[in-house]
Amino acid sequence: MATPTSTADPTPATDLPDTSSPTRGYAVPSHWVLTFGALLGVGATIAASYERLELALHPGETLFCDVSSKLSCSSALTSWQGSVFGIPNCWIALTVFALFASAAVAALTGSELARGYLWFLGFFALFMLGFSLWYLWQTAFAIGSLCMFCILCGTAVVIVNAAIWRMWRRAEILPRTLAVLVDSKLDIVAWAALWIAVAAGIMIGLSTH
User: Fold this and answer.
1) What is the pTM of this model?
2) Which domains does the chain have, with CATH numbers?
3) Alpha carbons 82 and 28: distance in angstroms, whole number
4) What pLDDT digit, counting tens, does each position of 15-34 carry?
5) Which one is predicted more confidently, 5 or 58?
6) CA–CA separation, 40 vs 34, rounded Å?
7) CA-CA distance, 131 to 22, in Å (whole number)?
8) Contacts of 172 (CB under 8 A, 6+ apart)
9) What separation, in Å, do the N-terminal and C-terminal C-alpha atoms of the chain show?
């Protein structure tokens, strides 16, 4: 009687790719998105810092970003809201975006970011989001003039938050409700809706001045 030939796959189970985790595949995209957002923020804040320095050295000078009475960096940068913590907001933002950029570079080079560090990044991302929304509200409804660099920084903050949500999801520290949004990619719709609402609010605020 012939012995049945085994058809079992000799490849050990430990060598098979793990596709059971819903977080698999988020790593590279989220890190690249974080890099893009961080670099956009760094660029915008460097430009704003340069313009702020020009105003300090040459008071009253018209900046290249002073397009009109409604779109003017000078009005926003020299207001009390532009230095609410005693130093220009752009300096604080530059430091935080540099932090995000360093984390992105570390992740892209293969480093596994610790959960504690991800919480740290998430805290500053949320802080920057809240601060950006407040400052844009102030520029539209109180100052009556918008800084183009502030819009770029706000956009960068939204991108950074979206990336960090995905990094949190991969590390399995994102709250369940938000995890459902990320898995279904509805968080992208939510972030877009937020920014559209902000743009609409800015237009309404500027129209009242």
Assistant:
1) 0.83
2) 26-207 (1.20.1440.130)
3) 35
4) 433 434 444 444 448 889 99
5) 58
6) 10
7) 32
8) 23
9) 96
